[in-house]
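[[Sequence with tokens]]
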Amino acid sequence: MKIVILDGFSVTQNDLSWNALQELGAQVIVYERTRPSETIVRCADADAVLTNKVVISAEVMNALPTLRYIGVLATGYNVVDCAAARQHGIVVTNIPAYSTDSVAQLVFAHLLNVTNSVAHYAAERAHWPLSKDFMWMDTPLTELSGKTFAIYGFGNIGTAVARIALAFGMRVLAVSSRPQEALPAGIVKASWNQALCEADVLSLHCPLTPETRAMINADSLKQMKPTAILINTGRGPLVDEQAVAAALRENSLAAYCADVLSTEPPAADNPLLTAPRCYITPHIAWATQEARSRLIQTATANLQAFIAGNPMNVVNR
């Protein structure tokens, strides 16, 4: 069996390896990165292809008659044309829930950076020795207890984020399809309009669909408190980036924290790169060593299950 990994470096980052896959006894070829023009050539004669962000389109599948399996090295699988894969009899799998705790952790790293100005005070520590008082402060701090934390999308990550928010003593609203009685204790089911209007913090944890694309736009931002903090660790296109940048410049939004942008890496003219009170991390929420190790373990287990004739985590049945 020939296994090709198209963008392995994004997962291993020089501190992990693909040894577990190689122990399956198959021929494993690992490419650190693959350009679109290289995909078909590199996957020639492959039985299985693993990809994180390299797109496997219908055109690519048409050129790969031996391909029987596509393993997406992520939870989201929009990089694969699943309908085309089904027509070709190709099994497509993903890696569910491997980064739940890591993403939830970054949500609060962003939030605490804003409310406690952690990066600011660490960078400005030279002022402290010059202070006339035992402390030095030039920007206000905010306590989370008692504030309202609204979550759109209440899957694994949204639930983990809610659990942490409750531990901080926050009131938690969930925009979810689940009825109130099916939500964890302490979580209040809310409408989208209620979440927008009442949130001191609004965190997005939903997939990108035609319905959720640009769900944060000029109209929805007008419903939010000017003191609200918006956090996006879901998908960049969930927000209209021009509208968010404008709200920040007009002081109608307190802060925007994002680990994802509409185009990655971002274009130099992305308006959020120069917007005030905009805190951007480079799509790292999923990338703790622990989460990446779980990803490799699950990717290996997925392939083992496929070889054994009992595929799991299939997304194109």
